[in-house]
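Re-running the complex after MR caught last week's input typo. The corrected sequence lines follow. Everything else is unchanged.
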Amino acid sequence: MGSAELIPGTLEALILRTVAAGPMHGYGIAQAIRQTSGEVLSVEEGSLYPALQRLLRKGDLVAEWGQSENNRRARFYRLTAAGRKRLAQEIPELERLVEALFRVLRPAEGG
Amino acid sequence: MFAEWMRQLRTWLAGSSFDEELDEEMQFHRDMHEQQLRENGLSPAEAKRQAKLSFGSAVAARAESRESWGFAWLDSLGQDLRYGLRQLKRNRGFAATAIITIALGVGASAAIFTLVNAVLLRPLPYPEPDRLVVLGEELHADYRLPRTPDLDLHHIKDQFKSFSSIGAWARDGAHWKTPDGVRSIDTIMLDPDLLALLGVEPILGRNFTAEDEASAGSVVLLAYSTWLSQFGADPAAVGSTMVLSGEAFTVIGVLPPAFRVDWQYSSPAEAYTLLSRYPSYLTNGLGLHRWKYVARLRPGVSLEEARAEFETVNTAWLDSQPAEMLRQEPVFLRFADDALGNLQTRLWTLVGAGTLVFLIVCANLAGLLLARSVARRREMGLRASLGAARVRIARQLGVEAVLLALLGGAVGFLFCVWAFYGLKSVLHFYLPRFEDATVDAQTLFFAAAAAVVCAALGGVTPLLARSFSAPWDALRSDSAGSNARRKGRRAADVLVVAQFALSLALVVGAGLMARTFWNLMETDWGFDGSGLIAVFLNHPNEIHGDTRALASLGDELVARIAAVPGVAPVTLGPGPPVRGFVSVRDIIVGDDREEPLPRADIQPVAPNYFDVMRIPLLRGRPFSTSDREGSPFVAVINETLAERNWPAVDPIGQSFAVRMRDDDFQSVEIVGIARRVFRSTLQQEVPPIIYVSYRQFPVEYPTAVFRSDQDPEALYPAIRRATADLGASQPIRVLTVSEQMDDSYAEPRFYMALLSVFALLALTLAAVGLYGVVAYSVRARTAEIGLRLAVGAAPGQILRMVLTRGIRLAAIGVGLGAALAWAGVRLIEGLLFGVSAADPLTIASVCLLLFATALLACWIPARRAASIEPVSALRQE
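Corrected-run output:
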């Protein structure tokens, strides 16, 4: 079960996409990204929390303290309207990027 | 962008809770992770170990999280601020000096800004005030020639294409009979068009109507303040009757509180009547001379188009008049310029003085900061060599300058509030629109901006002088040869020179105002005003022009007043020169009736008039009781008239003719020549005057004048009682002449005082600045001076050396300042009296004063230099 390095800049989009489903705490976000990516993408604490703070600063997320599923105090992140807008912009961008990667890695047959 | 800054700032201000929350959050993360691992079947110990592996990255995450907020910048700014505050606390003397300096500059300039803003800059309270203009004619003070008749704008006002409406007004006075007695009030006669074009509607009752105007109705509109003070703001005032100068008027409305049109007068009119009631309205029309015409430009018409049209119409009118008459050229002014124009020179003088003080303050602060940055070169050098970036050090200095600006600005604002209300309590008598002026947000904004500019100008100087540029240089030695130090000193020298130059200009201004005031006080009015009291009487209209009736009314007035105990000889005349009634007549000198005729003031007086007023007769005799109806008409003329019309011959015994009415001239013989007497303001020239006997010419508005050594206030009741039933229902006005004379000094006195305060401030600042520079250079050269003394220099030589350096700086400053003053004082020429703007005596004595100040400022450091102990000075090195 190996984990892949992320292309720089994609982490924020992944976080936004994940939180779009509903408010989540940091650990929950990391778990969700890992599970959804089929255990391929693992998000380290060391990059998750700075990324969350960057998103807070940009106003894409807001944070509030709440109760976790095991009744502990945890900080939950919620998508703002601005964050939703950014997500809508970044998904097509990322898709273009991935497509481009594919084009380079698998040159057209018969070429 | 702004929202992001706010989020950033809010999070930063949360301070330690930011870290705590992040720690708690990551602890939660690790705990959850550990639990997960255990659930996956790891032993508790192994789970704990694996979870802990991520701890290192957690520390990094915390640092990185802070960084992702861009806190590093704010954190270091916070450090700089704390460091700066510590520095200021440690150097209290420096901090206090700098803060007080900034406060003086900010306070003085903000107070003056508030004043000028309230009086000159804020728009007048009418809709679209910049579309209003005033139409008039230039008035000639020349008495010799008759003027062309005024253009009767009133009857042609519909002909103008440029103006949507034209309205006229003039100030008048009335006697208002109230239950408490008769009050003299100022009124305005206006036509209803004026109120309409000024966009004013009564707040109570109705406006003047066209029917009122056509029928010249006896209706009156009240000023708001009159309604408040005289009617107790009773709405029933509308519809009530007001007896003005013996005639009943119906109050039809009350004008809004802020309404005013007569800005030229010190206090606004109290009631408004119709212009169509003016007696000569129908026969003579309404000329520009007596009436002020206000016009509103039609939409789309430019000021220049309107001016061109008005001048064309006026020129055509003038061309149709006889050529020998004095042409009264048209005057076309923006309403605001006409209303407030006479204040502009005065207020801009204050602005100029305030700006000079502000610049001196900036230079002074720059000198202070420069000296300090030089003193801190070792500290800065050390920081730089320990790795602080130059930008960071520059920012440290910048932050300290901003701190000073904030503190100085805050103190300065308080100072401004104090100064402004001080100014207001004195000045609101002379300045319209000042009563409702307050220190407001604009003042605060101005003060903040002034503080920032002051700190920026002051703070940037050390950077320009690059006194901390080379760390190795700063650390290497303290020798006077250091390049950076020399640069710093040159900058300080420049600043001192600038302060002296600016101060000189201000002190010259103050000196000229002081000379003006002195001249005013010293000027001989031509009569003795001490203890002189005037009692004015308004005669009934029926006896207007009736010499005999007026003379007997005057005699009665004199007799009644003479009977009051404590009253010395009483005389009769047209009033004292400061406040008299003036009637100007054409005269014919010699046989040939030259056209146009010269003119002179005519003043009917009683025989003892010259005696009581103490007006010396240069030659000839005063009037006697036999100069009466039936005897030959005689006159005493003043020096001005004698020099004008009889320059070569002795006027006594000569005859001339005075126009009585229409083409009826009365021949009179000159029996005496009286000295010149100043009339209202001392700045005016003395007009030609003909004194005649009150029994031969009608004495309009007869005024009794007497001298008394008693307190005038104590005499008033007795005088009022004695004269109560004289002159029908007209009130009697009593004035102390010397008070009237003093009043004419009050305004120049005030401007002199204000300029003197500014000049003193400037001089003190310049002296402090020079002292700082010289004292610093002595301190820096201690070793050198010690060496000089050790090798045999006399202390006197050292003293001279230091003094010479200081005086040389002052001399350059004084030289530049004299040039500046010479160019600048022209601006205040209009405020001066009896002294020319380029008065050599004033400029020379001010230069001397500045040198004396410079000497004083250098003396202390020079003495210190001369008394340096060579041995200890050398050991310091």
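None of the earlier attempt is carried over here. The interface with chain A takes residues 3-4, 7-8, 11, 21-22, 24-26, 28-33, 35, 54, 57-58, 60-62, 64-70 of chain B (CB under 8 Å). The longest strand of chain B covers residues 163-178.
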